[in-house]
Amino acid sequence: MPTSTENSHARRHQTEAFPTASRTSPNPASKNGDSSPPRDLFDTPDEDESAGTAHAPAPVVRHASSAAPTVRCPVLSDGAQMWRLARDSGELDVNTPYAYALLARDFADTCRVATIDDEPVGFVIGYRRPESAATLFVWQIAVDPAFRGRNIAGLLLDGLVRDLPDVTTVETTVTESNASSRRLFGKFADRHGADLAESPLFAADDFPDSHDAEPLLTISGLGR
Ligand SMILES: CC(C)(COP(=O)(O)OP(=O)(O)OC[C@H]1O[C@@H](n2cnc3c(N)ncnc32)[C@H](O)[C@@H]1OP(=O)(O)O)[C@@H](O)C(=O)NCCC(=O)NCCS
């Protein structure tokens, strides 16, 4: 799935197809054992934290709750938070807020949000391929950085395919350098006893901007 080039360039050294990824950033949840009350979930940064980014949208700083995540279909009003999660992901090409609202409304069947204390902390957006309804294309998946490393993305993918029993194949594209995402889809394939194959799809020069190639991952033979 499209990811921002600046970040993926920074991580380009990780070129093994399915590396045993080390954690590229600490997990505040496990590191701090933080059990902050829910009201701290969406603290906005103070002036010092925002210094130097006066013209950039300030990322929302969240403190991880230890509450268990819930996975559900999105509703239109989730679109704004899905957009924020994409914006703050550090990896994804950010679509318009309109696009996330549209997906939440019209493609809720093939999208999911993960909530903690009723607040979205992760999302997956996808669609059935028009020429092959049994193939689910996963367009974007993201988890709030404060909640990464807790298998929330895995829960999103598992919840999605559990609710779509006729889907036998999952496709996505992942840049070579996105080790976390490759681990995610590798583990997902393993959990479902599926085959995972990689093939070229989008070359860098298929994109009008500076963008890494996006090889296709095909996960077929999904078991439930
Ligand atoms: C990819 C992503 C959705 C995974 O979400 P997640 O809920 O953390 O998934 P998991 O807990 O299963 O962890 C997957 C891998 O991420 C890495 N990881 C673990 N903790 C992490 C952390 N705190 N920060 C960053 N990466 C971490 C590890 O490689 C982990 O694999 P492992 O558990 O086998 O070591 C998340 O890292 C993310 O939102 N990334 C930015 C957006 C993105 O790249 N999306 C995919 C585009 S193709």
Summarize the structure in words:
- Helix content is 26%, strand content 23%.
- Strands 1-2-3-4-5-7-6 form a 7-stranded mixed sheet, sandwiched between helices.
- It is globular.
- A hairpin with a 2-residue loop joins strand 3 (119-129) and strand 4.
- It has a single domain, classed as 3-Layer(aba) Sandwich (Aminopeptidase), CATH 3.40.630.
- With 224 residues, it is α+β, with helices and mostly antiparallel strands.
- Bound molecules: coenzyme A.
- Coenzyme A is lined by residues 1, 3, 21, 23-25, 27, 89, 91-92, 141-143, 148-154, 174, 178-181, 183-184, 187.
- Belongs to the acetyltransferase family. EctA subfamily.
- This is L-2,4-diaminobutyric acid acetyltransferase.
Key words describing this protein structure:
diaminobutyrate acetyltransferase activity, Aminopeptidase, 26% helix, globular, 7 helices, Ectoine_EctA, seven-stranded mixed beta sheet, binds coenzyme A, GNAT_dom, L-2,4-diaminobutyric acid acetyltransferase, transferase
Strand arrangement across the biggest beta sheet:
1-2-3-4-5-7-6
Query: What is the CATH superfamily?
Result: Gcn5-related N-acetyltransferase (GNAT)
Q: How many domain modules?
A: 1
The CATH architecture would be 3-Layer(aba) Sandwich
Describe the sheet with the most strands: 7 strands, mixed
Q: Hey, roughly how much beta strand do the residues contain?
A: 15-25%
Enter the CATH topology name.
Aminopeptidase
Gyration radius over CA: 17 Å
List bound small molecules.
Answer: coenzyme A
Report how far the terminal alpha carbons are from each other: 24 Å
Number of strands: 7
CATH class: Alpha Beta
Family: Belongs to the acetyltransferase family. EctA subfamily.
GO molecular function, one term: diaminobutyrate acetyltransferase activity
Biased composition (Polar residues): 21-35
Domain N-acetyltransferase: 69-214
